[in-house]
Write a structure and sequence with these properties.
There is one protein chain. This protein has helices spanning about 10-20, 75-85, 110-155; strands at about 25-30, 30-40, 40-50, 60-70, 90-95, 95-105. By secondary structure, it is α+β, with helices and mostly antiparallel strands. A hairpin with a 2-residue loop joins strand 1 and strand 2 (about 30-40).
Length: about 160
């Protein structure tokens, strides 16, 4: 019989992440605990959501990666990601581009399911960086084409 996990604590989730090979730091700000880690050199946080009946435990959590935007963000970067990807959503929050993925344990999940969500997050982080690079290059190429077309019109 598979033992189901219906809640996690900061400590138990730290152990899951460490068992998967991640370094984890636990921080507390204004009484709210979060975990900080990184994958492929990209930092992310784990924020806990709804409290479980068991004190200090939660029935859900969110993986969150915030990247500071330098300069102008190409139009439609978040909308195109959200329309073409599942599981993680992208939003612009002030000067940060934020990718988030929720993990729900409320009804009980297997340890393999929990580990699978971690692997999915890791893959999405890798795709996120490739997506931003490709999107930025495509936007730059499009801008260059528009500028060239405008110059040709002026020359006529």
């Amino acid at each position: 019989m598979t033992q189901l996990i219906s809640h996690v604590s900061p400590q138990s989730l730290t152990e899951v992440l460490q068992a998967a090979g991640y370094r984890v730091n636990q921080t507390e700000q204004n009484g709210i605990v979060q975990l900080l880690s990184a994958s492929q050199g990209i930092g992310y946080a784990v924020r806990f959501g709804n409290p479980a009946v068991e004190q200090g435990s939660y029935v859900d959590f969110t993986f969150s990666c915030a990247l500071r935007v330098q300069g102008e963000l190409p139009q439609g970067v978040a909308e195109q990601w959200n329309a073409s990807r599942r599981f993680a959503r992208l939003s612009l929050q002030g000067e940060f581009l934020v990718m988030e993925m929720d993990v729900v344990l409320a009804a009980g999940v297997s340890s393999d399911h929990l580990r699978g969500n971690l692997e999915l997050w890791d893959r999405l982080l890798q795709e996120f960086i490739v997506y931003l690079r490709d999107f930025s290059q495509a936007a730059q190429a499009s801008t260059a084409k528009v500028a060239t077309a405008e110059q040709e019109e002026v020359a006529l």
